[in-house]
Amino acid sequence: MRQERQNSATFLPDFCNARTVFVVILLAELLAIVLTLAQPPYVDNRIYNLAMYSLFIEWVALSCTAVLCVSRRWLQQCSGHGAATISYVTTLLVTLVITELAWWVFNRETGYNFFRQGHTAFLLPIIGISAIVWAMALRYFYVQHQWRIRVASESEARFQALQSRIKPHFLFNCMNTIASLIRRNPALAEEVVEDLSDLFRASLQDSQRPSTLGDEIALCRRYLRIEQQRLGPRLNAVWQLAELPLDTPLPALSIQPLLEDAIYHGIEPLPDGGTITILGSLVQEGIRIIIENPFSQATSQSPARTGNRIAQDNVRQRLGSFFSHDDLLQVSQAEHS
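^ thats the sequence. predicted structure below, dont judge the formating
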C-alpha cells in the first residue's frame, strides 16, 4: 500500500494548495454572512458589521491556514489522532492570539468598541465558535478521506480483477497454437511463448504502477502476433499511429482487452475474417485511440457470441479512476458490408 494510505494523518488536506485556500476564504465569508444575518432585527449598520465580521473571520481563517500549511510536513509524521489533536489545539491557539490582537486594536488603540462587550464576553463566543467549526471541519476531512480510501480500494480491486483476467478460450487457443508450431516451426513457437509470457507478466504486475502508451502498444502487437498465428490470413491489423508521446501514463491492460473483444466479436464470426484498424491521434484533450473492426449483426446475435461487456465496463472504470474523468471509452456499431 502507498504511504499515503498507511498514514491516516493525511486525512488533513494540503493547506498550502491554492484551491484549499480559496475554499477556506469562501467558507469564512459564508460564516461572516451567517453571523450577520443572525443579529437581532433592531441592529443597525448591518453592512458595516458584515465588513468587520469578514475582516476578523478571514484574518483568523487565513492565519490558521498558514500555520497548518507550515506544519503539515510535521503533522504527517504523527498518528491520525495525534495530528487531529495537534491541529485542533493549534487552530484554537491561533484563534485566541488573533482575537486578543483584534481586541487590542479595536478597543485599546482605536477606542472603538465594535462588539460593545467586555473582554471575556468578546473572547469566549469566538473561541466557542472556532472550536465548533473546526471540530466539524475535522470530521468532514476524516469522512472525505475515508471515502477516498474506499473508492481507491474498489478501483484497485477492479484493476487487479481485470489484470488477472485472461479468457480461458484465449489461453486454450494459444496452447493449441504453440503445440501445432512446435514441430513445424520451433522458432516461431518460441516467439509465441515469449509473447504469451509478456501478456501474463502484464496481467500480474503491480496495479499501483502505471503503464505507458508505448508499453501498451508493444503488448497489443504481441497479442496480435499470437492471434495471427491462430487465425492466419483471416486476421489483418493496420496501425495508423501519429507521433504520439509514448511515455503517456496509462493503466495497464487498457487497450489489449478491447482488441480481444474486437477479434472475438468482430473477426472470428466472419468466414473471411477482416481487418482491425488501430488509429491514434493527438487532440486538444490529449490522446485519442480508435479501434475499428468489422461487425455483422447476424453473427452477433448468436448465443455463443453474446457478450456481457465486462471488458468494456472494466476498461471504462479503470480509465475513469485513473484520469478522474468519465466517458473516456465510447463504443459504436455499424453493419458489416
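The longest helix spans residues 119-163.
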